[in-house]
Amino acid sequence: MKTLTGKALAAAIRERTQAEAASGPQPRLAVVVATADEASLWYVRSIAKAAAGVGIVCDVVDLGPEAAPEQITATLARLSADDHVHGVLLQTPLPAGASAQELATAIDPRKDVDGANPLSLGRLAAGLPAFPPATAAAVMALLDHYEVALEGRRAVVVGRSTVVGKPLAHLLLDRHATVTVCHSRTRDLAAVTAQGEVLVAAAGRAGLIGAAHVAPGAVVIDVGTNPTADGGLTGDVDAEAVAETAGALTPVPGGVGPVTTALLLRHTARAANLP
């Protein structure tokens, strides 16, 4: 089984982003935070560090875990209207009672570098220019990097979130794959996923995908980032179980994750250069 790591691809994307950032106005990314979740805050710090490395300014706007939805909406609207800000990201989790989808409507689609605004998803579905969610884009970038053919092939996506599953299905359709989306109500999940020549696991359930779910030789992309008891991460795929069946698999960590962060910054640099 081939291991599809994302580190080299992420490094190449960062290199291109740095060159793009230096060719025009300095890109500025604003990350709005309304949580005390340490894992989330660690991720925000990692984004800021990565941004600095490619010449992008990253402003973290911490509203605190008690922020009201109205305050978050007003902040997103203010940043969207600020000509000095090119990308706006709403970090999750959010305070109880706050809906990420509803709040994201306040983000200008031209600055929606993580494809959170439903308008961005609608444009993506219609084949119009839009920033896709960085994680969905990272899956496509990895498939391209490893020259995985998609046209006419059967692709199965497990998970229907607006962050990965739904936008990824549209991106795969745009590349002429035959796409099936599975979810928690799918009957006999293994029978469906085992038809996929390309299988993407994005359900958020550790070890959901085992040997019975994978077709011989299938390319398996593991988007899952599930915390373990020892503070590490594990994917949605039981890597040991599928090792004898899958043709290729992305590791967790070190697969989709690094590419996602790199593409988020690439989107910001592109937003800064929009006319």
From TrEMBL:
Q: Tell me what reaction this enzyme catalyses.
A: (6R)-5,10-methenyltetrahydrofolate + H2O = (6R)-10-formyltetrahydrofolate + H(+); (6R)-5,10-methylene-5,6,7,8-tetrahydrofolate + NADP(+) = (6R)-5,10-methenyltetrahydrofolate + NADPH
Q: Which residues bind NADP(+)?
A: G159, R160, S161, T225
Q: Which EC number(s) are documented for this chain?
A: 1.5.1.5, 3.5.4.9
> Highest taxon of the source?
Bacteria
Ranges for domain Tetrahydrofolate dehydrogenase/cyclohydrolase catalytic come to 4-114
List where the protein spans the membrane: none
Arranged from A to Z, the UniProt key words for this protein are:
Amino-acid biosynthesis, Histidine biosynthesis, Hydrolase, Methionine biosynthesis, Multifunctional enzyme, NADP, One-carbon metabolism, Oxidoreductase, Purine biosynthesis
Q: How does it assemble?
A: Homodimer.
Q: What does this protein do?
A: Catalyzes the oxidation of 5,10-methylenetetrahydrofolate to 5,10-methenyltetrahydrofolate and then the hydrolysis of 5,10-methenyltetrahydrofolate to 10-formyltetrahydrofolate.
Q: What family is this protein classified in?
A: Belongs to the tetrahydrofolate dehydrogenase/cyclohydrolase family.
Q: What's the protein here called? A: Bifunctional protein FolD
Gene source species: Nonomuraea antimicrobica
* Gene from which this protein is expressed: folD
